[in-house]
Structure formats: structure tokens, C-alpha cells
Amino acid sequence: MNDAPDEPEHLSPQLQILYRDAIDNIMFLKREQWMITNYLIAALAGVYALVSSLAPVTLFEKGFLTVVVLVAVVYFFLLLNKIWEGMEKFRKRIVWFNENAYGSVLKNELGLEQQSTPTKTDSAFRTCIRAVGIFAALVVLYLLWRETLAALVDCVKQI
Prior knowledge:
The chain is mostly helical. The chain has one domain (about 15-159). It is about 80% helix and about 0% strand. The chain has four helices and no strands. α1 (about 15-55) runs antiparallel to α2 (about 60-100), α1 (about 15-55) packs parallel to α4 (about 120-159) and α2 runs antiparallel to α4. The longest helix is centred in the first third of the chain and has 42 residues, at about 15-55. The protein starts with 12 loop residues before the first helix and ends with a helix. The mean pLDDT is about 85.
């Protein structure tokens, strides 16, 4: 099943190849952003499973696993930013095709007269996908440190 739009038929074969390449790359990168998110969640679930199996966890182990979680989240953000940069490049290529491949009458009929890359919806989506990663990391860190935090709160209450 191919959900990608067909290449504009009046383009040269070389430009049709570039157009198809841009569409295919955007579809690939969209799948990859979800794969990266799934891998982060799986890695965080693995840390939680490790914490559960090691109980009680020493302070050194908690510190080490905290570093592992933070490194995983930072790497998650770096990979997502790289993917989003790639998507932006290919979206700009599609905008160029839409601006240059159609006559003004056809552009008006297709609603392409003032097309730009989608930034508002992208920004909201990017914020949500980042929030998922941060929330998952915070849950794991809370579960990792909750006994220590509870002991600290009890000490503060006694003072």
C-alpha cells in the first residue's frame, strides 16, 4: 500500500525521481522517529526491570543507572533532531517542486499558491514526542530513587 502522492506527470524523468526520493525519504524518516521513540521506551523499561530485579539497589547502582537514563534521553534528542533536520530538507525540496512545477492557475486550483513547510503542527508534534521521552525518563528515575527520596523526607520531618 503506497500512501505517497504520485509524481507530477509533466516533470522530466530526472525531476520525477527527485520528487519520489523526497517523498520516500520523508516517509522513511517518519517511521524512524517512531522507532527511536520505541527504542527509548524499551531501554527505559529495561532499566526499570533491572532495578526491580536488583532490589535492593545500592547508591552506586542508582547513580550509574541514572547516568544511563540521562545518556539515553540525550541520545534520543540528538537522533530526533537529526531526523527532523532531514525531514525539513526533503520538505523544502517538495515545496520547491510545488512552487516551480505548476502553472499559477493549477497552483491556485491545488491550493499550492503560498505553501511553506508545516511549522506549527510540526512544533506541537515535536514538543509532544519530546515530552513522551522526558516523561518516561522521569518515571524511571522516580521509581529508581523513590526509596531514597522517602528516607530523605523522613529525615527532614524528624528535624
